[in-house]
């Protein structure tokens, strides 16, 4: 079988390595916009002796279509590819176009499914491989695998885990595509858009400690951290943990109730709950809560 892989992120690298090792991968295609993640995809293709091509969005109906026709692929797999494929290209591969999506479709359709699943406190997610149609994430699901979201897992860590698990699912998918039909699924369809700043901002007066912890995990790493402010400066919060603070007076949410370099920084939340700030990022760098306390953070000051 000759497979073309469309990729734009390091999460596709385990699949590239697997398909190349089985001599199934004919080429890797990336968007024309170069960034850190697809440069690593490019390096992975080179390391595995797989040719790669870059195409602009406006070239999909012209030069990409012509090139794809010349390749005569059996199958095209999209894995973190950011451009919408024109519908008239779907018939070029023998078995069509399929997409690898990080949720149990049709739940959590959209471009940032892992962010929304972790922010919403889901206990399980997974991987779906579905037939592509004219819309994003709406085609029939061929195969999927449920994978637990463990306490404390961040968006980056869980996505990296999915990228490894996806190899076996892709292998099973390829072995069955000639003989099986798509799954018949009944879960409620849900679409979640690209997150906006309001979606990754901490609202101390509205969010519970658990919600802030989920948000912080969801924002690490693609978003760069949940947003709050302190002393007029934007702070990115990368890791927190729920904590018990004995003897603390009742404080407004967002108020620092304890701070020192030995034990770190503890912040009051709704319902008399507390969070310990483990990792933060400021304009000056990334710090542990203990190191951040060393710049003179005082109990009674507040995050906004």
H/E series? EHEHEHEEHEEHHEEEEEEH
Tally of structural domains: 2
* Tally of helical segments: 7
Query: Which CATH-level-2 architecture of the largest domain?
Result: 3-Layer(aba) Sandwich
What topology, given as strand order, has the largest sheet? Answer: 3-2-1-4-5-6-7
- Helix percentage range: 10-25%
Task: Please state the average pLDDT score.
Answer: 96
Strand content: 25-35%
Poorly predicted parts: none
Can I get a quick summary?
The chain is an alpha/beta fold and 304 residues long. It has 7 helices and 13 strands. It has helices at residues 13-21, 36-47, 63-71, 113-119, 155-176, 209-218, 289-293; strands at residues 3-7, 25-31, 52-55, 75-79, 97-101, 124-131, 141-148, 226-230, 233-243, 256-260, 264-268, 274-282, 285-288.
What does this protein look like?
The chain is α/β, with parallel strands linked by helices. It has 2 domains: 3-176, Formyl transferase, N-terminal domain (Rossmann fold), CATH 3.40.50; 197-293, Roll (Methionyl-tRNA Fmet Formyltransferase, Chain A, domain 2), CATH 3.10.25.10. It has helices at residues 13-21, 36-47, 63-71, 113-119, 155-176, 209-218, 289-293, and strands at 3-7, 25-31, 52-55, 75-79, 97-101, 124-131, 141-148, 226-230, 233-243, 256-260, 264-268, 274-282, 285-288. The strands form 2 sheets. A 7-stranded mixed β-sheet has the order 3-2-1-4-5-6-7, sandwiched between helices. Strands 8, 9, 10, 11, 12 and 13 form a 6-stranded antiparallel β-sheet that branches. It is elongated, with a radius of gyration of 22 Å. The N and C termini lie far apart (56 Å). The mean pLDDT is 96.
